[in-house]
Predict the 3D structure of the following.
Amino acid sequence: MAALALLSGCATYSSRTAALRPQLAAGDFDAALKTIDEGTGSHDRLLTLLERGLVLHYADRWEESNEVFSAAELLAEDLYTKSVSQGVASLVSSDESIDYRARPYELAMVPYYKALNYEYLGLPRESVVEARRAEELQAAAVEATLGDVREADRADLARIRIDPFLLWFAGMLREQAGETNDAFVSYRNAAVAFQDLHDLLEVEPPDDLARDLARTARRLGFTAELEQVRKDCPVVFRSPAPDPQEAETGRVVVLLETGYVPQKTQIRFDFPVYSGKSYDDTNAASWDLYNGAGRYRTLYPQRKIEYWVSVAAPELQDALADPLARCRVAASDCDTARYTVVATNLSRAARITFDAEKPTIFFKTILRGLTKYLAQRGLEKSTGKVGGLLANIFGAVTEKADTRSWSTLPGRILVARLDLPPGRHDLQVELLDKRDHVRGVRTIAGVEVRPGGWTFVSRRLF
């Protein structure tokens, strides 16, 4: 009966919250919040806050969203101090017995959404603070994560300490706040990051960034600095459009979120325990087994296989190809239209992060399985087969993969920017496939534009 009770609690996080994405797509935010509360456990406190904060953001409950996100930031900072006792517990149960620590790309999105919330609440100064926080959080989280990753697996993850889009976003917020010098610095950093990372992250440097650099450099008299950026970042200055007279128009930044980040699923695999082999150094033995995957019969040719251990590990399941390639955004009352670019690609960031962590995750999975089996074997020797059987049952019912992630995050953010005359405008968003065929149209009504001002509009496309 005890074993059955344990089995009933062994559903993975992704299966417990399977209803969350459909509820979000349907706009049923109350149901989504209920799913979050019912599907998360005691070690999912941070994940609960992240999911709740984003659902509240989409529900236009901006103050509540920021309160939840602020709590998430405080908890994340605390959790990035590792708990040795939790690490030991995961060796006899699973990684879900450890408090969830958000991945770097996840943490960076918290101040991004907080900044948008502040924009909608009419508090642009606070949004600037959050934009700065996004840069700091991602860099610090990557550094902490690299410490848990083998040196041989760190290269790509180490490169994405910053997100080019978030740097550009910070620049726009700083320019809106009148911080022209800081805005130029953010734009320059964004240009360098786009130049360096656009291929790795599969993003598109926006033409508007070149305009932003030229405009702020002109105001500051930074002629030499601008020329240096042009030289260093040619991909950013491919075809910058001319900057209109600033006093006559306002800038509308349209942020369109599409798709979902990939979800983790559970897979199972087996590895052998060899007769007569010493397992005093379980760490070394586990790395040997990881590196010897697929050739276990010849790994120790003089040893017979005593037992096959079955374990569960997470695998990142790439999302289905997004049929939406780009959008055409137009103002219905004037002849102004722009196409979006993929400014940030969270799906790609998730893949880079998981691929860096995967060898260590699989090593820990093997180590956990080996530790459980050796404990079972030792118990059999001291108490007989009944004790070993009970240990085997416990090991089986507690063996599950850690499939937790911030599952409601979008896969990509597409950005278009329009310069529009002052007043209220309705925007038409055409959803285009890879052949530029229109697959749907969305309307963003009543966008307020101020002369020389900035307006940020974000929508999730399902």
